[in-house]
Amino acid sequence: MKNVEHYKKGYYMPPVVDMSWAQKECTDKAPTWCSVDLRDGNQALIIPMSLDEKIEFYKTLVHMGFKEIEVGFPAASETEYEFLRTLVEQDLIPDDVTVQVLTQAREHIIRKTFKALEGVKNAIVHVYNSTSVAQRQQVFHKSRAEIKKIAVDGARLLRDLTIEAGANYRFEYSPESFTGTEPEFALEVCNAVLDVWQPTRDRKAIINLPSTVQMSMSHIYASQIAFLSQHLKYRENVVLSLHPHNDRGCGVADAEMGLLAGADRIEGTLFGNGERTGNADIVTIGMNMFALGIDPELDFSHMPELIDMYERVTRMEVHPRQPYAGKLVFAAFSGSHQDAIAKGMKFREERDEAYWTVPYLYIDPHDVGRRYEADVIRINSQSGKGGVGFIMEQKYDVNMPKKMREDFSYFVKEVSDHKHQELKPAEIYQIFSQYYVNTKDPIRLENFSLQKRADRWLGQILLQANGEEVILQGQGNGQLNAVSNAICKAYGITITNLVYSEHDLDRDSGSRGIAYFGLTDTNGKTTWGAGIDTDTITASIMAFVTAINRMEGMTERVRFRALKSSPAEVGQFRASVGQH
Ligand SMILES: CC(=O)SCCNC(=O)CCNC(=O)[C@H](O)C(C)(C)COP(=O)(O)OP(=O)(O)OC[C@H]1O[C@@H](n2cnc3c(N)ncnc32)[C@H](O)[C@@H]1OP(=O)(O)O
Ligand SMILES: CC(C)C(=O)C(=O)O
Ligand SMILES: [Mg+2]
């Protein structure tokens, strides 16, 4: 690509670092989470949230279990200031929740921030200044010592104003643009800040290391974190926090690796909203833990409602492929995946497995409030019999014979291919009803009678065919046999193989049953049909008639034979079966 020579790495390797953390597989407990949706997320929106929208978002965060929430930058605007005041005045901060506020390391901004905090019981005051080489050179025009002084002066003011307020606020410091800062210098500044705050076991300080702009692969960021974790003063009294952004698309990976490297806390947002490419996505990080059997201690089980709130108040959209949350993340369109999922679900049901192992589904969609029928098996021209069968069985109780499933799924696939559209379960059922159940063309079952004579059954069947009424007669060793013989003889059909099954439609309010017939002709071609009725024998005859109707050339056959009975014969038959 042109202009590649304009770029070089913008990060700095730590001088020495113990990399043994890289041997760990995963974290074994949830970190302290801090949502920065209402500050970092909000400052990245085209239209920042209104007061009411912030309150709604805040209440959701509390409900999900966040114990630390950065509620804003009170010195930034009237809305930001008012929001914190509203939380205080409406008593919206539970005792176990700490609100966090961000401030630049500038005196008038810090003072305004403290004013906004009046009456807050538990607060974290978060002060930052940029320490990177680029910002020292281009923005602040200051030496390392002068940059350190901004941080230390800010830290002192936080300490003094807290004492003055008689409060017990906790403090957080961020060397902003940490990823573009030499790790030794970031360490020097953080240690100088900690020297001012003198953190204790009961009042720990938070050192937050942001990838304000992500500049390296995740193991490099993590080795920078490890370096600070291993060399910070007062380490046991410091909560080491991460604040990854996503410029290289690795925000979640940075958070996960940073935790392995020694961090205790994560700042991030729901669905990764935030400046430019966003902040680290707490939903993904938390759900990644969940999927490994580690309790994230945040509740993501109402994901659809969470998305609804998020999209409404931020005016952002959750991407359909957003991990764990997107509309399509549990969807399988392709036949072999659907087949494996349907079999995996059955296996799980039969074996009552303790652990989730269903192929192609990383987690159980139910755990995040999603539904199998609507979200998992989705039908289009890539789908197969497993998927169509799954929908028909799970949603409509229709359990077709295996070969019929195949036949029906090819039929459905063709419809989808021609329409160039996904087919929803209701559309699939409609296709089934229209083409495979109780069909009336070219022959329509009007009535029938069955009588047993010695060990034989005599069948009479009244049909409407070719615009005429016709009574057919046949006999056989069973009821269905008598009817099928009558029809086959009349229309010259030879059946070489026959498959039959039936079952109740358990969820059907009219307590109907369904019967299926597969009829193989002399060319070896099998045609399928189904019949639904409250009476089992009627359902079976309907299924047989449907399979006959669906046979190739049946319309021509019916027209050619042009069978008809006289009105007197039909009237007599009707009277004999009690039909008027
Ligand atoms: C990576 C991050 O997300 S950091 C958070 C960023 N978020 C925001 O900025 C949103 C809220 N901010 C605001 O509303 C405004 O910036 C305010 C109200 C806080 C301040 O506005 P202004 O007074 O106009 O200052 P502005 O933010 O433009 O900063 C410019 C000055 O502050 C200095 N400055 C910027 N950040 C800091 C800091 N963290 N500490 C100390 N000084 C700083 C700059 O060097 C510059 O100084 P100069 O005037 O001597 O050149
Ligand atoms: C204020 C700091 C922590 C920040 O948002 C960043 O550096 O990304
Ligand atoms: Mg940020």
UniProtKB/TrEMBL annotation:
Domain annotation Pyruvate carboxyltransferase: ranges: 31-304
Pathway note: Amino-acid biosynthesis; L-leucine biosynthesis; L-leucine from 3-methyl-2-oxobutanoate: step 1/4
Known catalytic reactions: 3-methyl-2-oxobutanoate + acetyl-CoA + H2O = (2S)-2-isopropylmalate + CoA + H(+)
Positions of Mg(2+) binding: D40, H243, H245, N279
PROSITE patterns associated with the record: AIPM_HOMOCIT_SYNTH_1, AIPM_HOMOCIT_SYNTH_2, PYR_CT
Gene Ontology molecular-function annotations: 2-isopropylmalate synthase activity; acetyl-CoA C-acetyltransferase activity; magnesium ion binding
EC number: 2.3.3.13
Gene Ontology BP annotations: L-leucine biosynthetic process
InterPro entries listed in its UniProt record: 2-isopropylmalate_synth_dimer, AIPM/Hcit_synth_CS, Aldolase_TIM, IPM_Synthase, LeuA-like_post-cat, LeuA_allosteric_dom_sf, LeuA_N_DRE-TIM, PYR_CT
GO cellular component, one term: cytoplasm
Gene3D superfamilies according to UniProt: 3.30.160.270, Aldolase class I (3.20.20.70)
Keywords for this protein: Amino-acid biosynthesis, Branched-chain amino acid biosynthesis, Cytoplasm, Leucine biosynthesis, Magnesium, Metal-binding, Transferase
Class of the enzyme per the UniProt entry, highest EC level: transferase
Residue ranges of the region described as Regulatory domain: 439-580
Requisite cofactors: Mg(2+)
Compartment annotation: Cytoplasm
Function: Catalyzes the condensation of the acetyl group of acetyl-CoA with 3-methyl-2-oxobutanoate (2-ketoisovalerate) to form 3-carboxy-3-hydroxy-4-methylpentanoate (2-isopropylmalate).
Family assignment from sequence similarity: Belongs to the alpha-IPM synthase/homocitrate synthase family. LeuA type 2 subfamily.
PANTHER family in the cross-refs: 2-ISOPROPYLMALATE SYNTHASE, PTHR46911
Quaternary structure note: Homodimer.
Protein name: 2-isopropylmalate synthase
